[in-house]
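Worked example 3 (structure in, sequence out).
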């Protein structure tokens, strides 16, 4: 692990307070002398962070991705000694799913909790062969590695729903009551009918007995209506379109912390309760596509291990797994 280039505590402080902060207050909060605090501010600038000088102090306008790795490495990840998680930040990569898969295959169990993050993906992908579009600088796109037991048949199912719940919770916190965040089976985090974030869970294998889930998350942060092709624009929203403009690093960190909690600490029952609360489809009559066929019925509940439970007009109970179910025909 390389030693950090920036003072992570300083970045944290400036991310928390988005208003100008006087140098003496910064120095005091970090127990530094003012000259050292000034030097650390310079380091942040060199790492690409934009800082404004005001008569009343310094304000962080935007983080630079060069500072992201240091910051993310310092976020505690369950089962990892502090500061000892692998974080790879790319200015451009095909897909963070592939980057995270490579990390897992190269490092094995040591990759648990590892993150691959990109400013821009050239071949970002969604579920069922769809693509995930996010012009550079507008979103958060990352994948996190999670080791899973070789015989855990329902890992993808469980992790898809757990990740969707915690991403939705993180979005609701960031939106602070400005909009209602809901979940659409299996992986859409929405405001009304518009998608704000999506989750893609895939698996990777290193050798027999070493299996991983690669949990990919895409969040639309600063995306504006004109950034998308006209056919997508009506179905998509972003935090900015909903009225908040957090820094992308703050969004990434909030989602990563929520994921850590959901994967390692929150009991399945509690996540399921939260899914029921957020699910905009519960008890509604819906049409979904499963295994390439349309399926109609009333949403009864979710089985975290087997998928959405639907009651058809004939009274039959169907389980629709996350991996093969979609709100629209595939493609
Ligand atoms: C979906 O809504 O269908 C899932 C979207 C998942 C997108 C994320 S962005 C980061 C990671 N890398 C990818 O190529 N896809 C996932």
């Amino acid at each position: 692990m390389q030693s950090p280039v920036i003072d992570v505590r300083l970045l944290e402080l400036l991310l928390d307070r988005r208003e100008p902060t006087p140098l003496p207050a910064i120095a005091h909060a970090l127990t530094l002398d003012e000259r050292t605090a000034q030097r650390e501010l310079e380091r942040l600038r060199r790492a690409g962070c934009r800082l404004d000088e005001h008569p009343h102090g310094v304000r962080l306008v935007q983080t630079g991705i060069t500072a992201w790795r240091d910051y993310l490495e310092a976020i505690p990840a369950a089962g990892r000694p502090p500061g000892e998680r692998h974080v790879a930040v790319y200015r451009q990569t095909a897909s963070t799913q592939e980057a995270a898969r490579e990390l897992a295959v190269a490092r094995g169990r040591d990759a648990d909790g590892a993150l691959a993050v990109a400013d821009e993906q050239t071949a970002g992908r969604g579920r069922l062969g769809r693509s995930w579009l996010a012009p550079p600088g507008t979103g958060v796109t990352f994948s996190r590695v999670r080791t899973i037991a070789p015989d855990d048949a329902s890992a993808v199912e469980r992790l898809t729903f757990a990740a969707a719940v915690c991403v939705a919770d993180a979005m609701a916190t960031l939106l602070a009551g400005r909009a209602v965040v809901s979940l659409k089976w299996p992986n859409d985090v929405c405001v009304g009918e518009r998608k704000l974030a999506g989750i893609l869970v895939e698996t990777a294998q290193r050798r027999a007995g070493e299996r991983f889930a690669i949990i990919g998350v895409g969040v639309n942060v600063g995306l504006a209506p004109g950034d998308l092709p006209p056919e997508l624009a009506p179905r998509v929203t972003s935090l900015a379109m909903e009225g908040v403009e957090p820094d992308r690093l703050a969004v990434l960190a909030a989602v990563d912390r929520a994921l850590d909690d959901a994967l390692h600490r929150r009991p399945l029952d509690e996540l399921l309760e939260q899914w029921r609360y957020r699910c905009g489809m519960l008890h509604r009559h819906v049409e979904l596509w499963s295994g390439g066929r349309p399926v109609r019925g009333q949403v009864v509940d979710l089985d975290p291990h087997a998928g959405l439970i639907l009651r058809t007009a004939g009274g039959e109970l169907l389980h629709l797994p996350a991996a093969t179910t979609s709100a629209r025909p595939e493609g």
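Notes: The chain has a mean pLDDT of 93. The first helix runs from residue 8 to 16.
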